[in-house]
Amino acid sequence: MTRPTYQRIADELRQRILGGTYGPGDRLPSRQALASEFAVGPRVAADAIQQLVAEGYVVSRTGSGTYVRRRPALRRLTRSWYRESRDGSPFRADMAAQAVRGGWEATSEPVSAPEDIAERLALDAGAEVMRTVYTFTGDGEPVMLSTSYEPLELTRGTAIVLPEDGVHAGRGVVERMRTIGHRIVHASEIVTARSAGREETERLGIGPGTVVMVIQRTYFTEERPVETADIVVPTDRYELAYTIPVEQD
Question: Which pairs from 97-102 meet CB under 8 Å and 24+ separation?
Fold first, then answer.
């Protein structure tokens, strides 16, 4: 099947970017210039540029033009639940190890558990959970999102009911749950990839269609799951490093 004309133009521009003809921060030719070069209409040239925007190669600036995207430095996230037994935040520790100032903003509210969340937490449909929405930052720039859920039947009336408020704020799930008598013994993570949604692109400052990793994480005690979260990580900003303890006789 013959590829649409706009895709063939996008292929050529992509090769110029990868080959260094256009470097990070360089301005691409205007739609009119591309239309003239490839003997197509301005609409076809615009569709080619939009394809590259969706793939994350370029960014469009209203009234200015289209520029080759500057790729942020790739940083590492260490996935190892038992690190949370340390004082403080594992995310902040990861950032500090890479000379980056880590932080986050968060909002919490009680909600009825969506069906998939109720299943992950072994709750009855519609059970109340505390939902906390996070935007994690590195040197003040948004780098990662997370939405976590904790059963209110466990935390209601305790000092940890609001994960980011009170004396245990920012301490991580393992440490917080331990303070109310729930000892986490293991965690599970399922990693998938997909295109970012509109709200995610806005919160992260990434282009439409940018590929993100989604980590579905759940913490368990011996008796039950006590927290689950969906963590959204742009693939061009982080790599995941898993540390797995191996017991030997």
Answer: 100/75, 100/138, 100/139, 101/138, 101/139, 101/140, 102/136, 102/137, 102/138
Q: Point out which residues pair with 108 in neighbouring strands.
A: 132
Residues 84, 62 share a domain: no
pTM: 0.70
pLDDT at position 54 is 76
pLDDT(154) > 80: yes
Comparing CA positions, the residue from 74, 203, 83 lying closest to residue 137 is 203
Question: 142 in a domain, yes or no?
Answer: yes
Q: Is the predicted pLDDT of residue 159 greater than 90, yes or no?
A: yes
| DSSP-based three-state secondary structure for 239 | strand
Identify whether residues 125 and 156 lie together within a single domain.
Answer: yes
Q: Are 59 and 149 part of one and the same domain?
A: no
CATH number of the domain at 175, please: 3.40.1410.10
> Average pLDDT in the 125-146 region?
90
